[in-house]
Structures are given as structure tokens and as C-alpha cells.
Predict the 3D structure of the following.
Amino acid sequence: MIRVVLPPHLRTLAHVRDEVQLAIAGPVTRASILDALEAQYPMLRGTIRDHVTLQRRAFLRFFACERDLTHDPPDAPLPDAVASGAEPFLVLGAIAGG
Amino acid sequence: MSGVRVLVGTRKGAFILTADGKRKQWDVSGPHFAGWEIYHVKGSLADPDRLYASQSSGWFGQVMQRSCDGGKTWETPGGGMGKTPDGMPTGESNKFVYDTAPDTGKPLTTHQFYDGTQHPWEFKRVWHVEPSLTDPDTVYAGVEDAALFRTSDGGKTWEELAGLRGHGTGPKWQPGAGGMCLHTILLDPTNPRRMYVAISAAGAFRSDDAGTSWKPINRGLRSQYIPDPTAEVGHCVHRIALHRSRPNVLFMQKHWDVMRSDDAGDSWREVSGNLPTDFGFVIDVHAHEPETIYVVPIKSDSEHYVPDGKLRVYRSRSGGTEWEALTKGLPQRDCYVNVLRDAMAVDSLDACGVYFGTTGGQVYLSADAGDSWTPIVRDLPAVLSVEVQTLR
């Protein structure tokens, strides 16, 4: 299972307390994780990426295995540790605002 | 037993204040949606327990929330686990996509940007939700960048009423300091086909065919800050209001100037009269006296707080021009709050209650139509909107 850690506001919105576990068939990429996440938690559609363009919302970033994956292509394979479930895929809100 | 439910949207969540008809003892619940900006919460007249809230965030965008029990519990109406046959969610309550269909969405226009260039419409947030007067599942939403959307399935899905943007003046609309927002939606209680909207900075518009087509209604407005002060569009209208018994009479707080129309917006005249400043955001009408109106003058367009450190509501009992300051119970020194455009409302109890919220986090009530005021709460986050439901 793929493990995903959401920022607190999105955990509240999705009614989950802890990290999310997703089953993904096929390549594990940022796009396939977000597709599975939005299918399992439809209330998150539009909150991480745009409904239509699928562009990342500007103040969100993606990390895994101590690497910033934000600017990697959405279909690039994620590290094996994410695909195996050893490490989580993190969605983080930028430190901004008040 | 009658009562009131006050719906407060703030920079950091929503609060619901309830009291019986005496309006003395208040129960405060919240924050709902803690940490999110709640631009507006409003209940349905057709089903008072049906509430809609606009929840937004610079990080996560727009979320629409619905309650079917008067705000005790909430749901994202399109965000459940239902699926279409191809596996997609059955509803997407936060999906606001501008209409680009050839038959209804044309011409897809650009609007004027801050630097005078043309800029495509980009959805940012919902400023105002206006439930239908007769159907709790039908709601209108005014959004930034300015457009009007409607749901007829209780908020699961939204579609644009594209005739507003498509009627031709869109390239002349421009954002005000707060963005280019459609912030006011008024439904005529006597004519289901007539509705009004107001946009900063474009002006006021009227539809006489239930939102299909629109016309600008800005004749008589004068705005020195635009190239043609009497232009058909481009005016920064901050708020319009009407009384249910007389929906052809409109009152407007413009960027500067308080205005009145007696012909459903076809023409306007200034009624600022003896106000200390005619800049402001809110305007509202007494529940039982259609000529009694309220504004909160703000110092200027560059100093968004009350003048002289005094929080004063001004009331006119003659539909404008002659105004009296209402100060009893309000701070009269060292006060520098603002009252935003959606942050005043009235109840319809026999003694009309008037409510407003400030950017300092206070929500004030007058249970005697403005003669005296008392804070219901003092220390909320900055208040963005106040609505009141009179429960019987």
C-alpha cells in the first residue's frame, strides 16, 4: 500500500486522522497517487491540483525520502521506498500567510 | 418560541450565534472549518435548517459546505463516496468552471487587469452564496473572478449563468483592491425571474429572465477614479440592498457615494446627504420600514477604518439624504475597525434587530433598530460576513 501524509486541513476535510493508505495498480507516480487519492476521497478534488488543468496549487509541495519532488514531472516514477510503502509521500503546505 | 441564528464568517472559521427572541443570552458555536477563510454563510428561507458556507484557503482553494441541521453538522455535498459508472465522483461541490460552450459561454471574454491589459478569467473563490427563496437545493454563488454560478442539486455541482459575462462589457470590468468579485446577489421576492448582482469593479446588473441575460444598471453613478466617470460599467459598487415589500427600490453603497434607485436600477441618484464620509461597504434596510436604511461610513478608500476613531452606524428614516449617527454602546474613541460589505444583516422580529461584524472581531447587535448596541462577541477573528435567520 502507498502511504500518503496530508496537511492537517486536508485530513480534516477528508475525515482521516492519520496517514492515508492507497492501493495503486501500475506505476507509482505523483499523478497516479493523486488520482487514487481523489478517487478514494472525492472531497479533496480541487484542493491539491486544479480540477481541469491538474496543475498543482501554488502553495503546495510534494516530498518523499527527504527529497523535494514538487517540480518533477507528474508521471515520473517515485522512489522505490514510496512504491513499496516503506516511506510516505508527503503533501505539504508552504509556510506562508498568517 | 421565536429565536435568531446569526451566521458569522471570519478569516479563520465560521461561528454560529443563537438566542431566543429576547436576544439577551447567546450561545456561540465554532469555529466551524477552523483555520479556513469563510467568506459567507447563509441559510435557506425555504428550509431554515439548510445552510451553505463558502470555505476557502490560499493553499487549498475553494470548498463548499452544506448543513441540513442548522449548522450542527456539515458535509461537502459533492464530496461523498458516490461514483458514476466510470468511477468518477458523482458531484464536485467545489468545481467552478467558467462556461466556454459555444452556445452558452460565448463570447468568452477577458477582463481589464490592474495594469490596464486584458486578462483571462481565473476562478479564485466564492464570495457570496444566495439560496433560492423557494427551493433549498437551488443556490446562487457569486465568485471571483466575477461570475455567477448556480446549483440546483444542493451544492453537488455548479454551472455558470454565462449570460452575465457574455453580454459584452466584460473587457471593461476590472478588479478592485479586493479582487474582481461578484459580491451581491438579490432575488426579487415578487418576481422569480428578476434578480440583481453587483460586481467590484464593474457595477450593478439586472436580469429579468431568471439569470439568462443581463443588462448593466449604472445610469446615474459617477466615479471619478475611472476614465469616463459616467461610464456604463467600471463602477466599484460595494453593496446593494432592497426591502422585500418594495423590490424596485434599491439602495447602494458605492466605493464613494450612497445611492438610491426607485426604478429597479434603471437610474440612480445620490442620497449621501449629511454623512461624515460617503465611503463605506455595507448598506442594509430595516425589516419592517422600507425607508429606514443603515450604513457604516469609513474614512476613505485609502484608510479603511471608521473616521475619528469612532464606530458609528448611520441611519436614515427617509430613504437617504438625512442621516443620524447611532453611537450608544459603540466605541467612541480609539476605534479603527472596518465593516466589510457582507457584514451587516437584520432580523425580522417585531423589534427589528440589526447586526454587524467588524474586522476587529466584534459582532454587535441592536435589538431596537439601531438606537443602542451591545456586542454579542468581542474577540472573533476578523469578520467577513454576517447573516441572520429569524426562527419561528
In short: The longest helix of chain A spans residues 30-40. The two ends of chain A are 35 Å apart (CA to CA).
